[in-house]
Amino acid sequence: MSRRLAEGTEGPPPAEAAPAAEAVIALGANLGDRHATLAAALADLERLPLVSAVRASEPMESVAVTVDGPDPDAPGYLNAVAIVTTRLAPTVLLSYLQAIEDRHGRVRRERWGDRTLDLDLIAYGDVVCDTPTLTLPHPRAASRDFVLTPWLSIDPDAHLVGAGRVAELRDRLRDTP
């Protein structure tokens, strides 16, 4: 008989569940049926363990951004932002996002290349980190209208840690020639 069974079931109380955090996820696709892919990816987010809510923006069109800058000749992107309430750790959430990308045919051939699905973890509560696998907040989020505009549409009071109010960041981008 195991010692635990012999001692009974009394013992320390179970650990409390991790507190929920709001994670901001940018979704993008410029290959295949972009609308269907984004809809399926959002459904995948809703099915993740320890996710209690998903709010998503309407999709918006944007010009492809490559290593060399905007490329109007490349297939255009359909972008959206989702705010996910989760108790998953940021690194675990990132792993799930990469698995969802893989299920939707994501191939990583070149940096900032065309893709069937791109899921970027933009922010996770007030977490700030810079590791080889994860940087939070996303280092280019403050300079991407295709992230800021849909984010504002579902959270008009949004704030990007270390950068400021999302509305002000977006307005600055639009004021820059």
Describe the structure.
It is a single chain. It is built from five helices and eleven strands, in the order αβαβββββαβββαββα. The strands form four sheets. Strands 1, 2, 3, 6 and 7 form a five-stranded antiparallel sheet that branches. It has a two-stranded antiparallel ribbon with strand order 4-5. It has 177 residues and is of the alpha+beta class. 29% of the residues lie in helices and 28% in strands. Helix 4 (145-154) crosses helix 5 (166-175).
Q: Helical stretch count?
A: 5
Determine the structural class based on helices, strands and strand pairing. alpha+beta
Q: What is the residue-averaged pLDDT?
A: 88
Helices and strands, in N-to-C order?
HEHEEEEEHEEEHEEH
- As a percent range, the share of helical residues equals 25-40%
List how many beta strands DSSP finds: 11
Morphology: globular
Please describe the biggest sheet, giving its number of strands, its sense, and whether it closes into a barrel: 5 strands, antiparallel
Supply Rg: 19 Å
Uncertain segments of ≥5 residues (pLDDT<50)?
1-9
Task: State the end-to-end distance.
Answer: 75 Å
Report the portion of residues in β strands. Answer: 25-35%
